[in-house]
Amino acid sequence: MGRIENRIRRLRFDHDEMTQEELASRAGCTRQTIIALEQGKYVPSIELAFRIARALGASLEEVFQYEHR
Amino acid sequence: MAPLQKRALYSFVIGLVLTIALIIVLVLQGDITAFERDLSLRLFMYAVLIGVPLIYLVLVSLTLRKPTQFDERDRLIIEKSSRAQWLAVIFSLVVWTIALTEIYRDQGQVPVVFLNLIFMSALIISALAQSLGILVGYWDMNRNG
Asked: Which of B7, B14, B15, B38 has the fewest beta carbons under 10 Å from its own?
């Protein structure tokens, strides 16, 4: 089994400390989902992953990484 | 707290209060057959049991339309809670069936009032189980991911 990790928190801060609320609004999800993603407690659908990457101005691979175990 | 989680909590509390109120009304009436005799009581019960969920559904659908209010994670939790909802309703129907069959076996017939009570309990249990399922779903997702 692998694990999907993300750099959402890091990338938010790189974007003038974008708030979770703002990212949620841009990506079309709730702030609670952004919180869960940053804490590694939720793996998004492919569609949401693309929307988050686009909202952060990054590619999918820059935001999400698959760690094989 | 996520918007859906808040609404599930309100729904659970309202459902519990409603259940307790209905039980109190039935107890104050004396016995279970009073419900069958009193038309105004029956109409009041139907109005409450159908009206409250309808008003709640309209309010929820109006407030949870935006993607920033309700998203795929919430949808996933609702889908999981539906399983708990159906299990609870089926379990309650099994309990009603066994209890009524055993209690009224000798008489060969079940008083018609129990149709109303089964309907009311199924509605209440369904609403409570879904709310509880949603709350447990959030708790579980926040704990285990």
From this structure: B38
